[in-house]
From TrEMBL:
UniProt-listed CDD domains: crotonase-like
GO biological process, one term: fatty acid beta-oxidation
Residues annotated as transmembrane: none
Name of the molecule in the record: Enoyl-CoA hydratase/isomerase family protein
UniProt keyword annotation of GTP-binding present: no
GO MF term set: isomerase activity; lyase activity
Family from the record: Belongs to the enoyl-CoA hydratase/isomerase family.
UniProt keyword list: Isomerase, Lyase
Pfam entry (one): ECH_1
Amino acid sequence: MSGTVEVEQQAGVAFVTLRHPGKLNAMSRAMWRALRSVFESIQLSPDVRCVLIRGEGGYFCAGGDIAEYPAFRFNEASLRDFHENDVWGGLQAMLDCDVPIVAQIEGNCMGAGIEIACCCDIRIAAESARFGAPIAKLGFPMAPREAALVLREAGALSAREMLLQAAVLGAAEMKARGFLSQVVASAAAASAALVSAYHVAALAPQAARLNKQTIRALNRGQALMESSPSATDPVVNEMRGAYRYADSAEHREGIAAFLQKRKPVF
């Protein structure tokens, strides 16, 4: 069995589960491709307001499925195809997703796991969770775009320790370094993530998608608040329609509910 990425939806939340029995949910090539398909579908679904991604059996993801590696890693072309198409295809689909993503992180969050976690907006971890990318023990570096992702989200110190020392860091340390939103008792991780996901789902879905688009654009280009932004700046070009929501039903409902002292219905 090469593992699966399964999705089910309930009350506006899409539950994405990484499953690879006996391998602590290590990502196979088939799972990377499935991850891409799942998130591309979620992006197109107007009914999904939040995603909760988790691993089966008390583990998030222990890395890549090393048993598959001899079949493609020793040839430059096939190795490039694996990282640039399979792996980055899945990660890019998560990064391109306008729906907020909550990560429920338990047990091992290594290599592929840390990369997937880096694509999430809110990260909630069990106190027993462990984070790292000890691929130096396997004799290869992290692919460039994946390394850039980990560097940006986990920070330079964590990235260097994980990649150069094969360091494994605990949840408390990753929270102190700003990577995690919450660290909770191991038995409470699932419930804490669920509360977070349903809280996000109850808020304005259009606003959430627009906020993610804005954050993504700002990460790609210069700040909008500079005195004379260039008309060709990628951020300026993308933000030309930033106020088109003005006459939307969601915008009107949010303001009206506040003025009427009632809970908005989005």
